[in-house]
Amino acid sequence: MPSAARAAKNESLFREVNERILELEDAFGPTPQPALAGFVCECSQIDCTSKVEMTTDEYRDVRTRPVQFVVVPGHVDPDHERVVFRTDRFVVVEKFGAAGEIAADEAPE
Known about the structure:
Order of helices and strands: HEEHEEEH
């Protein structure tokens, strides 16, 4: 398992990618029904290439707290995060301890 600092930095990088995906989805305008978008798994595994399917509103809800990240089921790092919400498509985790502090510090203002 990666250190708390490495885990938080990996997840923050993946979160930045997802923020760009969200901006692109928003640029295309609203869809007639809640459509699923393909976001990047924000887990601490640097070699992860898994996609997380969720609506843009679901992603926005996760991002209301800077210490929350979205991961695919099975990618939870219990050493640095706890599950706060789970669906069949994704898991929302919350960083705690040093990893939570780093994630909060790196969050955009």
